[in-house]
Write a structure and sequence with these properties.
Elements: H1 2-23, H2 28-41, H3 46-74, H4 80-102, H5 109-129, H6 134-137, H7 147-164, H8 169-179, H9 184-207, E1 221-222, E2 225-226, H10 227-248, H11 253-277
Antiparallel strand pairs: 1-2
Helix pairs in contact: 1-2, 1-10, 2-3, 3-9, 3-10, 4-7, 4-9, 5-11, 7-8, 7-9, 8-9
C-alpha cells in the first residue's frame, strides 16, 4: 500500500506541475482534493485534517512556484516589482491568520470545504460564462495599477490562501485580469510569483510548530508536513511544470480560460457531492 501511494503521488505531481505551468494558479485546486483522500487513509479527520491539507499543499507550492517562476524569468516574462508589491502584504496576512488557525480548533473541515467550494464555483462561473477581453490579452506591456490596489489585493489573497490552501492564484488572476485590466499572460506570471511567497509564509507557520502538541500520524512528519507526501509530488512536478509553461505560450488566452474553468467545474461537482453525503 505504501508503494502504491508513493507512485500515485508521483503521478499527482506530474499532473499538478503541468497544470500549474499552463495556468499559473499553483495547482492546489488539484492537490487539495487528492491530499484529502490520502489523509483520510491515515485517519486524519476534523480540524487537524484542515491543518495537514493546507500545510502540505502549500509546502509543495513553494517549490512549484519557484520552478515555474524561474522558467518565466528565463523567458523574459517575470515582473518582480508587481510580485513584491502584492506578495509582501499577502505574506503578512497569510502568516498571521495561519498562526491563529494552528493555535485553535475553530476551523472545522466543513468550513474549509465550504470556502474551497465557494471559491471554485465563483471562478468556474466567471471563466465559463464571462467573455474575456481579447484586445487586452496580448498587450503584455500595459501598465499595472497603482500600489494601493495591489497591496489590498495582497492582503486579501494572503487571507484566502490561509483559509483555503489554494495558494492565491485563483483570486489573483480574476482580479488582475477582470478588475484591474492586466493581460492574462502577465497576470499568470505575477500570480505564480506571489503564490510562491504566500505559500512560503504559511509553510513556515505550519512547519515550525511545537510537535509535542501534534499527533504523529504521517510518515516522515515534521510539524504538520510530511516529507513522504511532499517528495514524490515534487518529483513528478520537476518533470512537468516547465513543459506546462511552454505549452501555455503556444495556447490562446481563450483556451487557457476554458481549460481552467472545466477543471474547476469537475472539482466543484466532486466537492459538492462530498458535502451532501456528509450532511
Amino acid at each position: 500500500m505504501t508503494l502504491t501511494i508513493f507512485i500515485a503521488l508521483i503521478l499527482l505531481g506530474l499532473v499538478t506541475g503541468f497544470y500549474s505551468g499552463l495556468i499559473g494558479t499553483g495547482g492546489n485546486v488539484i492537490l487539495i482534493p487528492v491530499l484529502d483522500i490520502v489523509f483520510s487513509h491515515y485517519h486524519v479527520t476534523g480540524p487537524e485534517s484542515v491543518k495537514f491539507i493546507i500545510a502540505n499543499s502549500l509546502f509543495i507550492t513553494v517549490f512549484l512556484g519557484l520552478a515555474v517562476s524561474a522558467k518565466q524569468y528565463r523567458m523574459g516574462n517575470f515582473y518582480i516589482k508587481e510580485i513584491l508589491t502584492i506578495g509582501i502584504p499577502g505574506m503578512i496576512s497569510a502568516f498571521l491568520l495561519s498562526e491563529w488557525i494552528i493555535a485553535s480548533t475553530w476551523y472545522e473541515k466543513h468550513y474549509f470545504d465550504l470556502i474551497f467550494l465557494s471559491l471554485l464555483v465563483f471562478l468556474t462561473l466567471r471563466l465559463l460564462l464571462i467573455k474575456s477581453k481579447e484586445n487586452q490579452e496580448e498587450n503584455t506591456e500595459k501598465t499595472m495599477p497603482g500600489k494601493l490596489p495591489l497591496i489590498l489585493l495582497g492582503l486579501l489573497t494572503g487571507s484566502i490562501t490561509s483559509l483555503s490552501g489554494l495558494g492565491g492564484g485563483v483570486i489573483l488572476i480574476p482580479f488582475l485580469t477582470d478588475a484591474l485590466g492586466v493581460p492574462i499572460r502577465k497576470a499568470s506570471s505575477v500570480s505564480i510569483g506571489v503564490v510562491m511567497l504566500l505559500a512560503l509564509s504559511v509553510s513556515i507557520s505550519y512547519l515550525f510548530v511545537d510537535t509535542v502538541h501534534i499527533e504523529q500520524v504521517l510518515p516522515w512528519q515534521m510539524g504538520y508536513t510530511s516529507m513522504f507526501i511532499i517528495l514524490p509530488v515534487l518529483i513528478g512536478m520537476a518533470f512537468s511544470s516547465s513543459y506546462g509553461v511552454k505549452v501555455a505560450h503556444r495556447t490562446s488566452p481563450f483556451k487557457l480560460r476554458v481549460i481552467f474553468g472545466i477543471i474547476m467545474a469537475i472539482l466543484c461537482i466532486k466537492l459538492a457531492y462530498g458535502l451532501v453525503v456528509n450532511l
